[in-house]
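Data card: per-record layout.
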Amino acid sequence: ESFLYCVRNRPRQALVRRLIREADVLIENFKPGTLEKWGLGPDVLLAEPGALMGFAPLRVLQEMADQPLP
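The structure for this 70-residue chain is written out next.
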């Protein structure tokens, strides 16, 4: 499952923190530092209890797309 959500206000940020507890991975497409500015950076979200195992900016995944798998 996936979802798209605007997280610019605090109540929605709190919802994201709750949803992250059920997620395996978060892929985001913001300018560098945006999620950190909103208090939702990797250090915060990876510290949430639950199953989140990965956090990747979309630009990193796009760069990796051309790399061979080991």
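Known properties of this structure: The helical segments are 10-20, 34-37, 42-45, 58-64. The CA atoms of residues 14 and 48 lie 12 Å apart.

See the next section for split statistics.
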